[in-house]
């Protein structure tokens, strides 16, 4: 391991992708992810890779699709409005069973929205990234170190399951600097891709990368097989961190930057005798269902804290299924909740318990 | 001379309508791969449109791209595999309407790929709607009174437009309506592949093509319509050719 | 060490760099640190601010909304953030730029003519480092050794020749006041 350095989230993520063996990056400028593309444009030419500034987000994601189809690890990054443009490509990647990493440094929407941090693309990432029946791996880092660690995981799991992975970051995590330990060299063990369209060399049948299945029974079978894979992933790959949940009366569920704020609020609440805890989903899909279920026993109330009008809270309500009260607190439009505001919510709930 | 199926074509039977030019152009591309011995290192891009199933017909590795995105996908492939041969096979709606940005930017970057552009002045797969290359006055499903340039604007002459860009090494318009023209088309396609293998930059061969089904014409009449209506609007010829010698700095 | 620091001023005063020096020094001293800039249109000639947290436990929100220390390098910054400072907190004002006084009585205020001191010593444009020196003197946010190392490491290799001037400006700050 190398030494601890102070790095911006966006740059650290870019460097982690390179460490993961990603040498092909296609992007388009948008705030607040510009440090990521800048870093890639500086680094990739020096290691024999490709940085290409595409004519649009649409082109960029399709370039990623091409590079992935050709058998290499590829990545693109953007922020919310740009991810909307990439939704076509996300659907095609999923429908073609191609791995790729897509970074969303979320900003406020809808429309041009604003450039300040947000978590209002949860539904987009976990439910509606594009047309059709499909899922994406969705990772939610909450520190710069996790921007690094989860990027490696996103590439590895994307390859393992042959599907795209989203790094769902936000303007805070992208812009902030924190100490981080980078993987020393390329630690990536990139698995063989016998399915890639890289020229058959007269040694095998031609490979076809395709999402079109004109016969409905065939397409249904393909999708069902894919959903069997998704079921397996839901069983095996749920990840979260729990903090002081063992005896918690109130369990906050929050991810990313909101989880950091919530953790401060939990600490403050404990000082005031409120038994609060935190479940921090690290994977948003698969959602850490098991952890939530295991806390239905001791939690009297769940409180979801998000930088949105309430999106992840839907998933928590589905899991809790009416067995406990599920509350929501959020700020939106680029506003960031403060620990004091979250503490206020905890106090309100405590008063009612 | 023995007339046999090129190796670079699979045994699958084409689904194209009688009189459609796709079959001929597929064959020319496959013959080119055979003659240059590059089938094993070629990756082809199938478009959205009538040629969507091209991935079933070409024996090289194939990738099916979203509507209009073939050249962006091809860019990703070529950047990952610079020593391989990459071609896209696209119709007029795919290339010159929904994929205009991808086309223009791949061309101006001098992306080292070959584009086979089928211009038949109509959307075939969806049942005969107006294309960006539908000529003035042409009747289609969505221009039932003939294309009015006042309402629907003017057709795009793709080769002429792209010839203005520095990244383009070869831009040539051909036709496959006669034996002589088929031979010329073959030569052009092969030259484009060769330019790519020499790393010369972006090459595009536009092929004027027939669509008897959606034009509502018999096969002989559609050949006649192509010559009388299309060729005057879309003259055959070379619009850009960087020449035989490799330029400095390319 | 636990300090939530907010630095604010005009774009171009080196606000973000100052924050980086503090964060880097804290990190080298073994503390948890975070650095979060304001970003967006305000970067372009308007106000710039930067949140820095130094803590002995994992940092929650990196956005400092209730600073223990505010460094105000222009009037709009002072006006915007004066009331956010925690009771008992500290404000260091560049008094060569800000001619108003802090109104609050429940906090400590230091008026330091950093811009003038820098200029008088041939260190034009290094008021931020003078402020940093004074910040160090007041808060001792890390060991002196790590502070010097933090400054050194924060300066990009291309600008290494500026280290000496930065250190000189810091010294002026550290030696200012009582």
Short key terms for the protein model shown above:
heterotrimer, B: alpha/beta, Rossmann fold, 37% helix, 17% strand, C: 178 residues, six-stranded mixed sheet, 21% strand, globular
Task: Please specify the SSE layout and strand pairing.
The complex is a heterotrimer of chains A (353), B (250) and C (178).
Chain A: E1 4-8, H1 9-19, E2 24-27, H2 34-43, E3 50-53, H3 57-69, E4 74-78, H4 80-95, E5 100-106, H5 122-126, E6 137-139, H6 144-161, E7 164-170, H7 171-175, E8 177-181, E9 208-209, H8 216-236, E10 240-243, E11 250-253, H9 256-271, E12 276-281, E13 283-285, H10 289-295, E14 301-306, H11 312-320, E15 325-330, H12 339-352
Helix pairs in contact in A: 1-2, 1-6, 3-4, 9-12
Chain B: H1 22-36, E1 42-46, H2 54-57, E2 61-64, H3 70-80, E3 85-91, H4 92-98, H5 100-108, E4 114-119, H6 149-152, H7 158-162, E5 168-175, H8 179-197, E6 202-208, H9 212-215, H10 219-233, E7 237-241
Parallel strand pairs in B: 1-2, 1-3, 3-4, 4-6, 5-6
Antiparallel strand pairs in B: 5-7
Helix pairs in contact in B: 1-8, 4-5
Chain C: E1 3-10, H1 15-28, E2 32-37, E3 47-55, E4 69-72, H2 75-81, E5 90-94, E6 108-112, H3 114-120, H4 127-139, H5 144-154, H6 163-174
Parallel strand pairs in C: 1-4, 4-5, 5-6
Antiparallel strand pairs in C: 1-3, 2-3
Task: Please provide a written account of the structure.
The complex is a heterotrimer of chains A (353), B (250) and C (178). Chain A is globular, with a radius of gyration of 20 Å. Chain A is built from 12 helices and 15 strands. In chain A, the strands form 3 sheets. In chain A, strands 3-2-4-5-7-6-13 form a 7-stranded mixed sheet, with helices on both faces. In chain A, helix 2 links the parallel strand 2 and strand 3 (50-53). Chain A starts with a strand and ends with a helix. Chain A has 2 domains: 4-236, Thiamin diphosphate (ThDP)-binding fold, Pyr/PP domains (Rossmann fold, 3-Layer(aba) Sandwich); 241-352, 3-Layer(aba) Sandwich (Rossmann fold), CATH 3.40.50.920. Chain A has 353 residues and is α/β, with parallel strands linked by helices. Chain A has helices at residues 9-19, 34-43, 57-69, 80-95, 122-126, 144-161, 171-175, 216-236, 256-271, 289-295, 312-320, 339-352; strands spanning 4-8, 24-27, 50-53, 74-78, 100-106, 137-139, 164-170, 177-181, 208-209, 240-243, 250-253, 276-281, 283-285, 301-306, 325-330. The mean pLDDT of chain A is 96. The longest helix of chain A has 21 residues, at 216-236. Chain B is of the alpha/beta class and 250 residues long. Chain B has one domain (22-241): Thiamin diphosphate (ThDP)-binding fold, Pyr/PP domains (Rossmann fold, 3-Layer(aba) Sandwich). Chain B is 37% helix and 17% strand. In chain B, strands 2-1-3-4-6-5-7 form a 7-stranded mixed sheet, with helices on both faces. In chain B, strand 1, helix 2 and strand 2 form a beta-alpha-beta unit. Chain C has one domain (3-174): Pyruvate-ferredoxin oxidoreductase, PFOR, domain III (Pyruvate-ferredoxin Oxidoreductase, domain 3). Chain C has 6 helices and 6 strands; from the N terminus they run E-H-E-E-E-H-E-E-H-H-H-H. Chain C has a 6-stranded mixed sheet, sandwiched between helices. Chain C is globular. Chain C has helices at residues 15-28, 75-81, 114-120, 127-139, 144-154, 163-174, and strands spanning 3-10, 32-37, 47-55, 69-72, 90-94, 108-112. Chain C is an alpha/beta fold and 178 residues long. At the A-B interface, helix 3, helix 4 and strand 9 of A face strand 1, strand 2, helix 3 and helix 5 of B.
């Amino acid at each position: 391991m190398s030494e601890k350095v102070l790095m911006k989230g966006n740059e650290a993520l870019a460097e982690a992708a390179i460490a993961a063996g990603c040498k092909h990056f296609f992007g388009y400028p948008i705030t607040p992810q510009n440090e990521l593309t800048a870093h890639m444009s500086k680094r990739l030419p020096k290691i024999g890779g490709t940085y290409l500034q595409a004519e649009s987000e649409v082109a960029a994601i399709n370039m990623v699709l091409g590079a992935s189809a050709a058998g290499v690890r590829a990545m693109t990054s953007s922020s919310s409005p740009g991810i909307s443009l990439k939704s076509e490509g996300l659907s095609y990647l999923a429908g073609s069973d191609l791995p790729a990493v897509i970074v969303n440094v979320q900003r406020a929407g809808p429309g041009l929205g604003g450039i300040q941090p947000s978590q209002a693309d949860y539904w987009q990432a976990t439910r509606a990234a594009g047309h059709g029946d499909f899922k994406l791996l969705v990772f939610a880092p909450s520190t710069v170190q996790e921007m690094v660690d989860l990027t490696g995981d996103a590439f590895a799991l994307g390859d393992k399951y042959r599907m795209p992975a989203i790094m769902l970051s936000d303007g805070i995590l992208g812009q902030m600097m924190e100490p981080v330990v980078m993987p020393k060299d390329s630690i990536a063990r990139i698995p063989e891709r016998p399915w890639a369209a890289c020229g058959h060399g007269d040694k095998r049948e031609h490979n076809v990368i395709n999402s079109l299945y004109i016969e409905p029974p065939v397409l249904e079978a393909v999708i069902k097989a894919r959903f069997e894979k998704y079921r397996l992933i839901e069983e095996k790959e749920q990840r979260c961190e729990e903090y002081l949940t063992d005896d918690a009366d109130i369990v906050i569920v929050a991810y990313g930057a909101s989880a950091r704020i919530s953790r401060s609020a939990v600490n403050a609440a404990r000082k005031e005798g409120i038994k609060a805890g935190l479940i921090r989903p690290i994977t948003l899909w698969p959602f850490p269902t098991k952890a939530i279920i295991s806390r239905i026993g001791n939690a009297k109330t769940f409180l979801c804290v998000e930088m949105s009008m309430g999106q992840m809270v839907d998933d928590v309500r589905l899991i809790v299924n009416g067995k406990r009260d599920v509350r929501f607190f959020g700020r939106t439009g680029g506003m960031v909740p403060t620990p004091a505001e979250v503490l206020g919510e905890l106090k309100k709930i405590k008063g009612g318990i | 001379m023995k007339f046999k199926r090129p190796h670079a074509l699979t045994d699958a039977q084409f689904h194209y309508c009688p009189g459609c030019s796709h079959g001929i152009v597929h064959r020319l591309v496959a013959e080119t791969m055979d003659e240059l011995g590059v089938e094993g290192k070629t990756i082809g891009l199938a478009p959205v449109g009538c040629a969507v199933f091209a991935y079933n017909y070409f024996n090289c590795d194939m990738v099916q791209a979203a509507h209009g995105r073939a050249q962006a996908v091809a860019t990703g492939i070529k950047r990952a595999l610079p020593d391989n041969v990459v071609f896209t096979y696209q119709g007029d709606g795919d290339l010159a309407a929904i994929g205009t940005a991808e086309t223009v930017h791949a061309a101006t970057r001098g992306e080292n790929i070959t584009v086979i552009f089928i211009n038949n002045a109509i959307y075939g797969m969806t049942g005969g709607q107006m294309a960006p290359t539908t000529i003035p006055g042409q009747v289609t499903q969505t221009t039932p009174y003939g294309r009015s340039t006042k309402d629907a604007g003017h057709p795009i002459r793709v080769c002429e437009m792209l010839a203005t860009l520095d990244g383009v090494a070869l831009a040539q318009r051909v036709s496959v309506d006669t034996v002589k023209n088929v031979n010329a088309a073959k030569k052009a396609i092969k030259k484009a592949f060769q330019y790519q293998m020499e790393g010369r930059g972006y090459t595009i061969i536009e092929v004027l093509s027939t669509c008897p089904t959606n034009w509502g014409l018999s096969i002989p009449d559609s050949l006649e319509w192509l010559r009388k209506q299309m060729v005057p609007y879309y003259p055959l010829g070379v619009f850009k050719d960087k020449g035989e010698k490799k330029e400095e700095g390319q | 060490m636990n300090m939530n620091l907010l630095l604010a001023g005009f774009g171009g005063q080196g606000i973000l760099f100052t924050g980086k020096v503090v964060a880097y020094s804290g990190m080298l001293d073994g503390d948890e640190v975070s650095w979060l800039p304001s970003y967006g249109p305000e970067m372009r000639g308007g106000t710039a601010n930067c949140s820095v947290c130094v803590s002995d436990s994992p940092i929650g929100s990196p956005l400092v909304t209730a600073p223990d220390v505010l460094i105000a390098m222009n009037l709009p910054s002072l006006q915007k953030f004066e009331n956010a400072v925690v009771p008992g907190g500290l404000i260091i004002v560049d008094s060569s730029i800000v001619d108003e006084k802090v109104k609050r009585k429940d906090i400590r205020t230091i008026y330091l003519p950093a811009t003038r001191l820098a200029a008088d010593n041939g260190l034009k444009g290094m008021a931020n480092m003078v402020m940093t020196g004074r910040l160090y003197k007041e808060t001792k946010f890390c060991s002196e050794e790590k502070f010097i190392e933090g400054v050194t490491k924060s300066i990009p290799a291309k600008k290494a020749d500026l280290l000496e001037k930065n250190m000189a400006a810091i010294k002026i700050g550290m030696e200012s006041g009582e």
